[in-house]
Structures are given as structure tokens and as C-alpha cells.
Amino acid sequence: MEEAADRHVWAVDVLGVGPSERLLEVGCGHGVALSLVAERLDGGSVTGVDRSAKMIEAAGRRNAEHVAAGRVELVRGSFERVPLGLHRFDTLYAFHVAAFWRQPEPMLAAARRALAPGGRLLLFNQLPGWGQISDVSQFAAEVTAILTRHGFETDEPITADLPSAPAVCVRARP
Ligand SMILES: C[S@@+](CC[C@H](N)C(=O)[O-])C[C@H]1O[C@@H](n2cnc3c(N)ncnc32)[C@H](O)[C@@H]1O
């Protein structure tokens, strides 16, 4: 089972999860961040979406207790196409899901549909090739520009010089 890396722990700290919050993680992979989020919930829930059946299975194994308790829900499918029913989320987050900046049109349209009024979008990234905090700042500026072009209001990005590599969180609201 994949261990929580420093980037997962940092990201979930940045999320500042409220106990009754409704969250959506896009591209949840093995479900490592989902577990860390679920541990902070009391009445809230987190839904993990991933297009890979293998990843959804792994996330299910890792989060079996949380799924049984109704804190974690898992959905397999491409975020931009998957039906999420009537669910609306207070927080939508993703770690290292390049579709958000490579195919922003469908991804950000889907984010708008999924967010409740007043909801927030947090896009995290960390690339092994990033040696310096300045590499992160350039990435953050590019993603901020994409979000602005698609009508999102952005806050100042949050960066962290993690032991594994620098990381960033770009925050936005529709
Ligand atoms: C680089 S991995 C990161 C996994 C996890 N977020 C982490 O940081 O450990 C990207 C994940 O996003 C998923 N993914 C990429 N594009 C997606 C999309 N459009 N909809 C749903 N899942 C997607 C992939 O299947 C993969 O599991």
C-alpha cells in the first residue's frame, strides 16, 4: 500500500478540511489523500474520481473502512464526463492531474458544474524535475493565467519547499 508522502500530508493541511465539508478529489489515484481527508471528517464526505479502474480498486482497498462508514465514495470515470448526480461540493481538489492545464476547457467546465455556490478549487502539483522554488512559481503563474482566462477568480498560490521537491497549490473560485 502506498505510504502517504510529504506532498499528500502538506496538501491535506493546505485544504484545511472542515469536519462537515463535502469534498471531491479528481484523479485520486491510490486514494492516499482521500484517507488523510477522511480522517478529518465528522459528518462530511469526500468523493474520489479516477478514470483508471485499477486506481479506484486500490483506493477502495485502502479506504474500505471509510467507504463502509459513508465518509468516502469512489467513482470510476473521466471527470469531465462522469455523471455525479445531484452532488455539489464545497471543495474540489486535485494533485498532479495535468488535464486541468492541458485540457482546461472540459475540466474547468466540469469543475463549475460540480462546485456548490461559494465552492473552491485547489490544484496541487509537484514535479520531480522541479529543483527550485522559482520553477514552481512559473508553473503557478501559467495555471493562474489559464484559470483567469476561464473566468475563475484566483488567490495567491501557496508554495512549499518540501524535502521531496518544491510543491504548489493554485486556488480559485468560479
Ligand atoms: C499522476 S496521477 C496522481 C494520483 C494522485 N492524485 C496522487 O497525487 O498521488 C494522476 C491520476 O489522475 C487520473 N486522471 C487523469 N486525468 C483524469 C481525468 N480527466 N478524470 C479522472 N481521472 C483522471 C489518472 O488515472 C491518475 O490516477
TrEMBL record:
Domain of life, per the record? Bacteria
Ranges in a coiled coil:
none
Any single GO molecular-function term of the entry would be: S-adenosylmethionine-dependent methyltransferase activity
Where the record annotates domain Methyltransferase type, the positions are 24-122
Name used for this protein in its record: Methyltransferase type 11 domain-containing protein
Stored Gene3D superfamilies: Vaccinia Virus protein VP39 (3.40.50.150)
